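Please, structure for the following, as tokens.
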Amino acid sequence: MKFRVLFILFFSLILTVSSQDVDSIRVVLEINLRETDSDSQKLNVMLALGEFELDHNFTKARYTINGAFDLIEKSPTKFTNHEKALVLVQYGVLKRRLGKHSEALDSYLQALRLFQIDNDVKNIADIYHNIAMVYRFQKDYGKSIQYFKKAIHLNDSLNNKLGVGNARNMIASSYSRLKKYDSALMNYQEAERIFKSLNATENIQQLNNNMVSFYRRLGNLDKALELSLSNIKYSKSKDKKLALANSYYSISLIYEKLEEYKLAGKYVDSSIRLAKKEKFINNISKGYRKRSQLWNKLENYGAAYRDYKRYKKYSDSIYNENSVKKIQELELRYEFEKEKQEIELLTKAEASKKQLYFILFILTAIACVVIVLLVRGNYKNRAMMSKIEHENETLRLSKELEDKEINVKQLVADNTMRLAFKKDLLERIKTDSDKTDANVLLQNLTTDLRLQIESETKLSELQNKINLVNKNFDDHLKMEFPDLTKGEREVSSLLRLNLSIKEIMTIRNVSEDSVKSMRRRIRKKMSVPKSQSIEDFIQSLA
């Protein structure tokens, strides 16, 4: 909680820096750094302090940024890609201001890879801006313009107006170096418009620093001198050492153009003293070069030669052949790793695509198998249903045929009984016609006919009773005793009604022996106990 309060206080002080002493901000950050225990929080404070000191005390900036770099080197797993990349960016700025451009570029490229892993577009744009600055100091203005354009494009896509303004300010400086003054002026004006819309005072001042060189090259020395004096005043009020060193150098160039060589020399001396104190190698190098040229114009050739040797000493450390080669190697390595990464991504994409196609093929094959099984199952179900329907229809027809067969047999039995009765009646008429008179004979015949009709009526009623009682009994016998024949089931049904052998003989129109024989077979097939009558056993089945 204490850490957060102090950190919020720091940002509040940053916002009100114009009305507060710079040292108060430094004190807050240094207290914060001492009191924090977490490595991650410590790193964040060091980043804030390093950013602050880069503008105010380069020596302290070196100490803080190198400490942050050592921290991530010792325990890289403790920090996120984002935190490590931010340290590498500051480390690159430090190396760039020390004139170690190859080391600066190496640091920027490492940070770029980490930001690309996280797809951190805003910081990728910032890296492009810093890489462009390296090429600008290397005087490779063409490449610097390429990277500034990349930074502008990304910042524009993010609607980061301040980022666009900063990149346009610096790309204008590179165009000015190439003497493309129309492009330079257009970008300066666009940067000024953006900064004014955002009320970005600090950035407007940085723009004025660059505009000094632009007006000087165009020959508008009064405007250049006015801006330079304003920049010196602003830089002193904000304790901005690097900006102040640059302003001293810029005003010396203006007085050189005005042929006021001694006054120009005084400002160059001020720039060199400050640059040596803060170890701004680029500023020291160009300061000695300019002072050598001024001594030469003042015809002090010995002093000119001494300063020229000093210039060469610092210049060679910045622009030596090995440094250039190392920068080229870093460019090639980065491009190679980038191409390698793209190839790996393409390879992974192709592998993923093949895997997807294989999965789709497997799913399609499974779907086809399922469809075939469903169609086959449907066909089997339909065939089974058709078979069941056919079997049901066969059973229905068999039942109808069986019922018709029974009816036919009953009709045959009835006709047989009637025929036997008629034969018997005819025989009696022939026999009794000679022995008995006609009235007695007629009376006897009438009585026999009436008895016959009564007997048939009783049989018909009995048959209906049998059909009613035995409606489901026959199916039961089929299930329990499948060995029984149809005739044996019919007799079992009659026995269930407790009919006598004689009654069964009459109904079935068979002999007594035939009925008895059938009873024995039924008893055997049903396994009727000897102690139990067959009628009782059959009745118990109901």
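The longest helix spans residues 321-432. The chain is about 85% helix and 0% strand.
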